[in-house]
Design a protein that fits this description.
about 375 residues, single chain, globular, GTP-binding, Ribonucleotide Reductase Protein R1, domain 1, binds guanosine-5'-triphosphate, SH3 type barrels, Rossmann fold, alpha/beta, EC 3.6.1.-, metal ion binding, binds zinc ion
Amino acid sequence: MSFSTSRASASALPSAPSPDPSAHPLAPYGWDDDWAAAFAPHLERGLVPGRVVRVDRGQCDVVTADGLVRVDTEFVTPNDPLRVICTGDWAVVDAGGDPRYVQEYLPRRTAFVRSTSSKRSEGQILAANVDFAIIAVSLAVELDLGRIERFLALAWESGAQPLVVLTKADLVPDALGLSYLVRDVEDTAPGVPVLAVSATDGSGLDVLAAVVSGGTTVLLGQSGAGKSTLANVLLGQDVMLVRAARDVDGKGRHTTTTRNLLVLPGGGVLIDTPGLRGVGLYDAGSGVGQVFSEIEELAAGCRFQDCAHVAEPGCAVIEAVSDGELPERRLDSYRKLLRENQRIVAKTDARLRAEIRKEWKRRGAEGRAAMEAKRGRRA
Ligand SMILES: Nc1nc2c(ncn2[C@@H]2O[C@H](COP(=O)(O)OP(=O)(O)OP(=O)(O)O)[C@@H](O)[C@H]2O)c(=O)[nH]1
Ligand SMILES: [Zn+2]
């Protein structure tokens, strides 16, 4: 069966420039001319570039031109959790020292962030320099467009290009039904390629592999959406190779089964960390705007600049709904995500205020104690 269900033709799909493997040993890991330019000053100082494949407490595994090395990360683990080195970062490595360590990392192009449930006021960095975010959606269950929109907001917010991959297409009985499902999702996801694939009959997988070749990809989606299956299909035999490569540092850590950053046979890498799998929505403000770009465009025609599109006179958005031009479900979903986003931001601010108060209380207590000690000495 040939793959022809999606209106998004292969030519309309984004494609990352395929790195020339002869150009640089790190090209398969995403190294390109822009990274090389950013690294040039470090190279002059005898430092080497490496991509972070895994981060542990205090150390990380970095793949360099000479293979995988274990390096200390004390200089790249600041208090701000968003600035801590993470999988996908391009590290500036001092490989000559003992211990070897990361001096800094190159400015990130994109970043996936998760809101933390801890007392910390900021999010947690999950993956850096991701080009493509595959949002896996199972066709075995009824489509939940609201959920897709939520993942899209998260993906846009990170800076990566989202791709919706409808999995288990073999379970949809007829081609016409499948094309309707694809169109529904396309209408929900302006600017986002939508592909239907099946790991069972192989349809669509070659297109998907071609799209993500040369870039860095992450897999998002509900449990059971088929992410592991897609990862296995994309990776082919390379999982084994990367595991074997872990033995390069001679410490036998190849026994690990944690898959973090893996080379794809067709070029490019897949980042698959446990944290990314349960990712939520964190301050996806501009991301929400991109998911609902047609609403934002309509809003430009509202009479009031701060129109909330609820009951304002001259509201172009409500007018589009009553004209049947904009589905009411879209507007509801937009409002819901904006509200949720505001709650997260408000919660974050409240945490920050609470932390500041605690700090001032502590200082106040110290100050009082010092004053009392002084008084005591005087008495
Ligand atoms: N019929 C059919 N089943 C599939 C296909 N792809 C995956 N599945 C099945 O769907 C189930 C879930 O797939 P997984 O790949 O484990 O899903 P996941 O998203 O990784 O799930 P979590 O690990 O819970 O996040 C498994 O039983 C797969 O065999 C497909 O193309 N067709
Ligand atoms: Zn309006």
